[in-house]
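DATA SHEET
Item: assembly model
Revision: 1
Owner: S.N.
Input lines:
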Amino acid sequence: MRMKRTMAALAGATLALSLAACGDDDGGDSPATVEENPEFESGTTMAELAEAGTVTIGTKFDQPGFGLLGLGDEPEGFDVEVAKIIAGALGIAEDDIDWEESPSELREQLIEDGTVDFVVATYTINDERKQRISFAGPYYNAGQMLMVQSDNDTITGPDDLKANPDQKVCSVTGSTPAENIKQYLANADQLVLFDVYDKCADAMEDNQVQVVTTDNVILAGFVSESDGEFKLVGEQFTEEPYGIGIKKGDVEFCEFINQTLQENEDAYLEAWDSTAGQIEGTERPELPEPDPCT
Amino acid sequence: MSRPENVLYDEPGPRARRRALVGTVVAGLLLLGVIGLAVRKLAQEGQFDMELWGPLIDPGNESFRDVWRLLGRGLQATLISAVLAIVLSLVVGTLLGTLRLRLGRWSRMPVVGVIELLRGLPVVITIFFVWQVLPETPINVGPLPGEDGLWYLVIGLTLYNSVIIAEIIRAGVLSLPRGQGEAARAVGMTEGQVMSTVLLPQAFRTMLPALISQLVVVLKDTSLAAVLGLYLETLRRANLIAQNLDNPIQVLTVVGLMFIVINYALSRLAVWTERRVSRSGFRPEAAEAEVTAGA
Amino acid sequence: MDPVLDNLDLYWSGFLRSLGICLWGLVGSLALGTLIAAFRVSPIPSLRWFGTAWVTVIRNCPLTVVLFFFAFGFPELGINRSYYVFGVSALIVYTSPFVCEALRSGINAVSAGQAEAARAIGLTFTQSLGQVVLPQAFRTSIPPLGSVLIAMFKNAAVVGAFGVGQDLFSVGKGLANAQGYDALPVLTGVAVFYLLITLPAGAILALLERKVAIVR
């Protein structure tokens, strides 16, 4: 899945370009502020990290808009900026952050064995993962949406699909979005499955399918690439809340992260604008209410 | 290889030469046409724009230094992983190979089983397996120098290549004249001494070309890390650069050329060594089939 | 709850998908490899030159680079196909020089007298190649060709790992990562199914070698 998403994003040409343009020099233009000598109760993770003066943070290296290794050999993106806000509140400047690549397969592992102090890596909060680690946040709600041709007025949201069985919906074989969309469809024939999203976008261009559905982040890439041919319609109808992965049961650290995000909403929005917000078609998020820490 | 290739046709006479000339021109034009079409397509899509090539070939470009620094790091990572893998494979492979030679018919069954198993598995699956399963075992690569990804890649490659090398070594030892071992035993050497001081050194010598060819295979296989997203070697670096600059064709061309140059040089070295080795005695026939396949 | 037995149907369809990649690769690379081999032995220098360049370039290039060229390069030219098509094409292109060289070694091993006799009775280059030399060359080439093809079957897994979807590798990755099964049994299952392709292929090859190969 991760691989495919990367491919889809890679196809989002303008996207990578615009991001490269804004992230070449990481010479401290980060919106994160660095606290000077913050005080923490001894024995907490915060105190340990502030004392050490360095932190190891896990993020994706190949997820444009969120965490992509830039030409300066440092990751760039929304996740990275969010991580910098948290590090800043610990009194750690971005130069003192060690970035550790955290592909989907290894995120829990890296947190459990202490390789990283926390993970910000398009990391969807779910119960299965909570058995091994804890989440702070969410800091962003990704979700599934629909993309149609710009002149399509028939479909304005997933609820229009049942009444219009001739509007074929495209997604990727075996993916979660493909499963999610089934309940909105009139029959099984309405769903067309390909092996990658690029195929869906092409098929929609040729009018073989009328709707493409997956995560808003991927769709936004296609919309920006299409020069106004495609548009997103309706609301996000699934919730994929992205959280910050920390050691299981570290309630104090979780609460600290949540509080930091709440207190730095401006920096959070600025982080979005300078990274994923540059992708056309993405909407500036509101900082979601944090889940209770457990 | 030793015979000239023109057994298939005579030394051409005047008519044949004329025909060959016509054929050459026609085929050449056809080839040029195909290449021309490809070039035109590339040009139409703006693939020759300096905006795309500049970061790779124009030292004045703002990204040039960054791009080549990253490619340099990638190349370094590729070479480190390849050298580690080939050295480890050589050690493990020699052990496995001699074990297979020295054990009795029944007691070598497990060794043969392991060799056949690892040989039958695609190396990409072996690497993925190591990457996914090793962290769940008590074996921890953390204390080793370098990134974790490096070691998962090296271990995966070693598992595969050591059994290949074991077979190369075995073939090498078996290709030695029987008299070598017999003579060594006759002068009172132990089995271990026979192997380590008489047979193996000669086998290594005859196997050297095959071993160099295997290095080419290993070098190519390190780039499997890019498919898995496991380790920042050359191709993965290239991919990430292309994501930043949106110029996959250009970056892949440059990286492809890097691989071709290195591997071509190694292949020539293998051929050169083979000539030297075969001139001085034994013929490493048995290993040839093994290495042509590549991975 | 056995992760392999519970998902045996998934594994089976993955196996068939992987087998499909292998078979397309087999047909395609034999065809393309034979063509390139014919180029390399032809009397026309420009074709020989092209064949040599093809073999030198592609043989020294990792499969992954060829694959990425197809998958990431072609879309830049407005050429979009599924990753399955791109993956299989890359596999065929990558394998073709190895097939070519295996065949060429076979052609070189056909004794000169055969070609001379063919020419002596007036056969043209194409006739002597197609009716006399190649049929013998194929048989002599079986051992090296076999190892090339088995390597190709294993390389089909790279195409799968790249993201063709639904093949054995993807099934294993999906079960281990997305559905949270233990990696060890899941991937052992993948390995076993893969051996179901490579080991019988090896056995068939050995049989072929005994039956038809010409031992010189």
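QC remark: Chain C touches chain B through 67 residues (CB under 8 Å).
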